[in-house]
Structure formats: structure tokens, C-alpha cells
């Protein structure tokens, strides 16, 4: 009986702890950067653009942005391909065909070539790194006429004191010209790292995110982008603010979305999980106020909410202040639970202010399109080639 108890209580051996790092980092240190390939004559109208992306999970906003941009480039006549650099073993044990199929399905990548390995690599006119983990691989790829760095966020802030933080910072100093997902981020790269940096504006898929006159907008619903696995979304702050609102307004309907697992929120709420575009648009069409917390670069979510006519509350970070302005369409609150709760409560109580901010948001979102963002990226790439 005692032996049986020991067998029942014995935990399965998890195996050795896996410590990961970009393998190409050592290659660059040991062998240097592969020289660029000469490109004769003026740049052709049709470019071959190869984009190296890090490992992925369903619902990744960064990978979604990349695919929006690539679809825009394809529409402008360019040939695009995606190459997956799995530095942390997310896709270990999966067949390359399975990884490629998941990427196509999750990120609407039917119009580009997707590669889970670099075995078929044959060079490109422009090769783009898209995350710090991919930079060293891009520097080692042969047959590239130009290289660049698509920077969507200040990635060192994703980490505490660590090797990853130091490596992420170092990638901005490796000489790649950058195109950043906001003027604020481009300015940070220039000022802090002396990097060459252009900017593009995050777009909106207006075929999905738009007002829906068939849906009656409620006056009692707050929706919160509660992607807790992403620390820069400040979910603990949002939960404290919503807990305060739920205490003062017990009949308030609160919806947490964006996280695959249920969150122990401490107040009654709905949690539909990770939603696709049409599901999000339907949620934004009926909600009263949207809550998104952007501690670094703004995410896609606030502008998509605005495009649906939904007033938004966010934090008054440097990035949000520079991108949207202190008196722009988004209500910016101090990084404090009561300040965030107060900003939401003010909008809940003031229908006229909600309408004003909704109108201003629709006007701003109208100018944010993915074709325009792809054009900005194309302009930067042609400058690199020249």
C-alpha cells in the first residue's frame, strides 16, 4: 500500500530545463554579417520581399500586423514570403507542413509563401527582420540586396534584467535601417540607439471594423482587452479599475477578451476568450466603452475600437500622448486604478461626450488603412535599395 501511495503521489519528471537563445546570434559573433548582394540598375517595380518572423501563437497581434502589411505589398504588385525563426522551440515536434498550415490559417496568409525552415532560401531583394529574435538570422542570410528591421514595439521592455533584454537592445545598434510602427517609436530608436528609422501608421481593416447600424449600442457595457500573457497590456491595473467600477455599479456588464484562459477577475464578468475579427467587431459595435492599456507602443486594438464607433480609455503613456494627443479621440488616464475607473465612469455617465469621442475616433480611424501602411513600408524599402 505504501509503494502504491508513493507511485500515485510521484510527479512526472518534467525533464531538463530548456534555456533558449537565437542560434544565429553566435554565428554573427563568430563569422560576421553576410555581405549584401549587388543589385544592378534601378530598383524594379516588382520587389521580392522576404520577412523573417519569430515563433507564433494564435491571436498574435504582431504577426497579424505583418500579414496586413504583406497583403498590402502583394496588392501593390510585390512578391512576398514568410520565414519562421523558432528560437524558443514553440513549434518543436511539429512537422514543417503543420507549422506552415497553422500560420496560414491563423493569420490569413494564403497569398504569400510560408516556410517553417530556411532550406528553400534563395535570396530576396529586401529581407525584413520583425522581432529582436530574428535580426541575427537576417544578418546571416545570403543573397539579400537590402535588409531592414520592422519594429513594432520597444522590445527590451518586454523583459526584466536579463540576457534577452540586453540582446534586444543590441539589435537596434547592428546597422539595420528601421521602419517603426509609430512616430514615437521611430523617434525613440533614433534618439536612444542612433538608428536610422522611418515610421508607418498601424492600419485598420475597414471591411471588418466599422460601425454596424443594425446593432443597438448598449449603455452598460465595458469591454477590456485583457491579454494577461502580454505584460505590457497592464491587465492587473485594468482589473483593479474594473473591480472599483463593479463595486460602485453592480449592474455594469463587463467583458474581458483576448486571453485564452479564464482570468480570476474578482468580480462578475463575461470572458469569451480569443476572438476573431468579425467577433471583435460585433463586440465593439454593442459596447459602451472600450478599455485598452498600452504601456509601450499603441496596439492595434484602440484604433479598431474607434473604427467601430466605440469610445476608448487608455493610459497616458508617452507613446499614447504622442500618437493620439492629450485631447484626441481616446480618453487618456493616469496609471492609477482610480484614474482609469474615473475615465471609464465619466464616459458611462456622459452620452454626449461618448458621441463626441466616437465621432472623433471615426474620423481618425478613416485615415488609418493597411494599404496606406504598406505604401509607407514600400517607400522605406525603396530608400534602402537606393
What does this entry show, briefly?
The chain is α/β, with parallel strands linked by helices. 40% of the residues lie in helices and 16% in strands.
Topology:
Layout: H1 2-9, H2 23-31, E1 48-54, H3 61-75, E2 79-85, H4 96-107, E3 113-115, E4 124-129, H5 132-140, E5 144-151, H6 163-171, E6 178-180, H7 183-193, E7 197-199, E8 221-225, H8 235-248, E9 253-257, E10 270-273, H9 277-286, E11 289-291, H10 301-307, E12 312-315, H11 318-324, E13 331-333, H12 337-349, H13 351-366, H14 370-385
Parallel strand pairs: 1-2, 1-4, 2-3, 4-5, 5-6, 6-7, 8-9, 8-11, 9-10, 11-12, 12-13
Helix pairs in contact: 2-5, 3-14, 5-6, 8-12, 10-13
Sum up the structure in keywords:
alpha/beta, 40% helix, 13 strands, Rossmann fold, 386 residues, 16% strand, 2 domains, six-stranded parallel β-sheet
Could you describe the 3D structure shown?
The protein is an alpha/beta fold and 386 residues long. It has two domains: 46-203 and 370-385, Rossmann fold (3-Layer(aba) Sandwich); 221-366, Rossmann fold (3-Layer(aba) Sandwich). Helix content is 40%, strand content 16%. It is built from 14 helices and 13 strands. The strands form two sheets. The chain has a seven-stranded parallel sheet with strand order 3-2-1-4-5-6-7, with helices on both faces. A six-stranded parallel sheet has the order 10-9-8-11-12-13, with helices on both faces. α7 (183-193) links the parallel β6 (178-180) and β7 (197-199). α2 packs across α5 and α10 (301-307) crosses α13 (351-366). The termini are far apart.
